[in-house]
Design a protein that fits this description.
It is elongated, with a radius of gyration of 25 Å. It has 195 residues and is an alpha+beta fold. Strands 1, 5, 6, 7, 10, 12 and 13 form a seven-stranded antiparallel β-sheet that branches. A four-stranded antiparallel β-sheet has the order 2-3-4-11, with no helix packed on it.
């Protein structure tokens, strides 16, 4: 009996790590510096964004221009993620949401001993979840990173959302062709995404 209990404990200890305990995503390095321009990337782990889709990754991107030159940066239109299998993923620029018009109707019967059967009808519309989704879409429009010019001494931040179904990690986030206007130098900023 003790052997069975011991084997059961060993089996459970082996099964738990293999059963899909998913480690959270991490970015390394969290910031890169090229010619006094700092780009910081952080993964936002707020559950409310998963109301839009299950396979999304929300990134907070911050650009600090400590150089003497204006820079041009286009992460919303040019950045991409390459996963371990070579698939490319691009940021979501716009969300299109079609609200559900048809309400839901449900019937419920319950039977209990020594009581008469009960019957109920419920009528629901998805207005609460639709309101939450519409608020998220408005928040994304306000908070998403705006491509364009960053002046010397300025700090700009915003979010990027990637739809990454079946993404295999480690993956690389690349923000290409950041342009310094005085020297006309272009640099790519690269970050590694791991679990």
């Amino acid at each position: 009996m003790k052997k069975v209990g011991f084997l059961f404990v060993i089996f459970i200890l082996i099964l738990i790590p293999l059963a899909g305990c998913i480690r959270p995503l991490e970015v390394s390095p969290q910031s890169r510096v090229i010619e006094n321009v700092i780009i910081k990337v952080e993964i936002i782990k707020d559950v409310k964004w998963y109301n839009l889709a299950q396979d999304i990754m929300v990134l907070n991107l911050e650009v600090v221009n400590n150089s003497n030159s204006e820079i041009m940066i286009y992460p919303l239109s040019k950045s991409f993620i390459i996963d371990a299998t070579g698939r490319q993923y691009f940021p979501v620029r716009e969300f299109y949401y079609q609200p559900k018009i048809e309400p839901s109707l449900s019937f419920e019967f319950s039977f209990k001993t020594n009581e008469p059967p009960s019957f109920s009808i419920s009528f629901r519309s998805n207005t609460q979840s639709e309101k939450e989704i519409l608020e998220l879409l408005k928040a994304y429009e306000l908070m998403k990173f705006r491509d364009g010019k960053v002046f010397p001494g300025a700090r700009v931040s915003g979010i990027l959302i990637f739809y990454i179904p079946k993404c295999k990690f480690p993956a690389r986030l690349i923000i290409p062709e950041v342009l310094w206007e005085l020297s006309l130098q272009k640099y790519d900023f690269e970050f590694i995404l791991t679990r």
